[in-house]
# Entry
Amino acid sequence: MIVPARRKLFVASKDMLKSSAAADSDNHTHVSSRSFLVFAAPVLTLILGKLAAFGIMTHVAAALPGSASLAAHQIALTLFFFISPFLEVISQTAQSFLPPFFVAAAAADSSKGKTGEVSSPEREAGILSLRLLRMGIFVGMVTGSLASLVPRYFPQLVSNDRGVQEAVRPLALPLLIGALLTAPVAVSEGILLAKRELGYLASVYVLSTALLPPALIYGVKLVKGPVVNVWWGFALFQLFRATCFTGRLWGGKLLTAVGRRVSKSDTGR
# Structure
C-alpha cells in the first residue's frame, strides 16, 4: 500500500507543492509526509498498546498452574473480541463526523478571538459527543451482558471440560465490567482522535501499557489467585484509561458546573 499512498498523499515535486498551495487556498487539505507521520505514529502507539495489553494478560494466564486457567482466559478474550467491534464502530463514527465541527469551532475562535463563549460548532460537537458516549455505554451494557451470560450460565457452549467450565464461570463479572468501561474508552478515544489530541492519547497508552505488566505479574503472584484476577486487572486497566480520556474531555466542564452550583448555593445562603 506504500506506492499508492505516496502517489495519492505525498508531495513528490515542487510543481505538486505549488498546485497543493493553490488547492489549499480553495479549502482543500494538503497531506505531507511529515503531517501523515505525525498522525500515524500516535495511532500506531494506540494499536500496539492494545495488542500489548492482551499479550501480557495471556502471558500471565499461561503462567498460572493448570491448563484450565489459560483455556478460560482464551474463552473470555474471545468473548471480549466479540464485544469490541460494536464499540469500535461508535469510535469510528466519532472520528468521521466530529472533525468538521472542531475545525469550524477553531476557525470561529480564530476569527472572533477567544471571548469565553462557546461557539455554535463547538456546542454541536459537544452534543454529538455526549450522544455518542450515551450510545456507547448502552451498547457496551447490552453486548457485555449478552457475552457475560455465556461463561456464567452456559459455559458448556464453549467447553466440554468441567474444569474449564468452573474456571471460566467467575470471569463473567469482570468481563461485563471490562465491557462497560471499554465503552467510554472507545468513544473518548474516537473524540480525542477527531480533536487531534494525539500526544495525550499516546502518552496515556504508553503509561498504562508500562504499568500493566508489573501490576498483573506481581499482583497475581502476590495473591496467588485464579485467572479471574487477570481480568480484574484488565478492568482496572480500562478504568484508568476511561478516567484519563473522559477527564480530558469532560473533567473541566464538570468541575466548572460543580463550582457554579457551589457558588450559587453560597450566594443563596
